[in-house]
Design goal:
Number of helices: 5
Mean pLDDT: 85
Radius of gyration: 27 Å
Order of helices and strands: HHEEEHHHEEE
Largest sheet: 6 strands, antiparallel
Strand content: 15-25%
């Protein structure tokens, strides 16, 4: 290849390489978390990416969660002397987290049962906790059984007659390098009291109909 052709080839390769580097940098900035560069030059990045080179992590996985959701429960307990008392709120999600943390082979139950059970309930109820379809009462029974199984391990000192469940939703704090100030105050969704039935726990317990069935 003659010298002029070598020069043309070298320049062409340099241009292609420069274009590839710029494109990769723009694509990375587009999908990266908000940072100093994207705050100052976000419009230029968007102009480069859209519409031909749009990137979206949903191709591989859902967007990262920006909230922590914990499920709590408390119980109305009847002691051996016939006296009634209400326990404090017990963080069932924290129990799962403790069982998972540091465990090389964590249980699928600890990882997913409570989380998916709560998602099942939320997706089958309105915001005021009313069933919005045929699966509503099924989800109530499911989350009640999960809560009862977890509460049995806390040895509350009596027979559980009623339980109440709530969720605590809290925004994830921004990283130290960010100037964003998300609201991290907990928001509670409190369900009505449920009377425990014999179907709620293996071995049976006393009780009648649930309040949700009335």
């Amino acid at each position: 290849m003659s010298l002029p052709y070598q020069v043309v080839a070298a320049v062409s390769l340099a241009v292609v390489a420069m274009f590839a580097c710029v494109h990769l940098a723009m694509a990375f900035l587009h999908v990266a978390p908000s940072n100093t560069i994207t705050k100052q030059h976000g419009e230029a990045v968007d102009d480069w990416v859209f519409p031909e080179f749009e990137q979206n992590w949903k191709l591989f996985a859902p967007n990262p969660l920006q909230q922590n959701i914990a499920v709590h429960a408390r119980a109305e307990v009847v002691g051996s002397d016939g006296g009634r008392r209400t326990t404090g709120w017990i963080d069932l999600s924290a129990d799962d987290g403790e069982a998972i943390r540091g465990n090389l082979l964590p249980s699928h139950v600890n990882q997913n049962e409570l989380r998916r059970g709560w998602d099942f309930f939320v997706n089958s109820h309105t915001n005021d906790n009313r069933p919005n379809g045929m699966r509503g009462q099924l989800s109530e029974r499911y989350i009640r059984r999960i809560a009862m199984l977890r509460l049995e391990g806390h040895h509350l000192g009596g027979r559980i007659e009623r339980i109440q469940v709530r969720s605590a939703t809290q925004g994830v704090e921004a990283p130290v390098w960010s100037d964003e100030k998300p609201d991290t105050r907990p928001y509670y969704r409190v369900l009505p009291w449920w009377t425990v039935t014999a179907a709620d726990l293996p071995g049976g317990v006393s009780g009648g109909r649930t309040e949700a069935d009335k």
